[in-house]
Please model this.
Amino acid sequence: MPGSIMGLIRVNRPGYMIYGGSIKPGIISDNNLCGCDAIESDIQSGKYEIDIVNSFQAYGAYKAGKISNDEREYILQNAIPGPGGCGGMYTANTMATCIEAMGMSPLYSSSLLAESNDKLNE
Model:
């Protein structure tokens, strides 16, 4: 992302950077994993939203003996369900937010999920 902005500045032409969007959270419904500190339940539906942070915490829970390797693998395989930038506020989302704040990408483009209808219409 910084490279595309530097390119726009270098050629001295008007333009926008269009961010591809963030990844949506993964969904699991396995009640056996509710003991993992990082997974919060939606009490009414019995479903759990998981993301990249849960992948990191699952490794810690595995090393501490709180979950099995199979449970850890299950979390890893479901935490990142499709396309988009990293689900945490890390490099991609942070850079997209900063670039949007500088006015070099469309308003609200950094907060749209990659697979959302709003992103498709953008």
The mean pLDDT is 82.
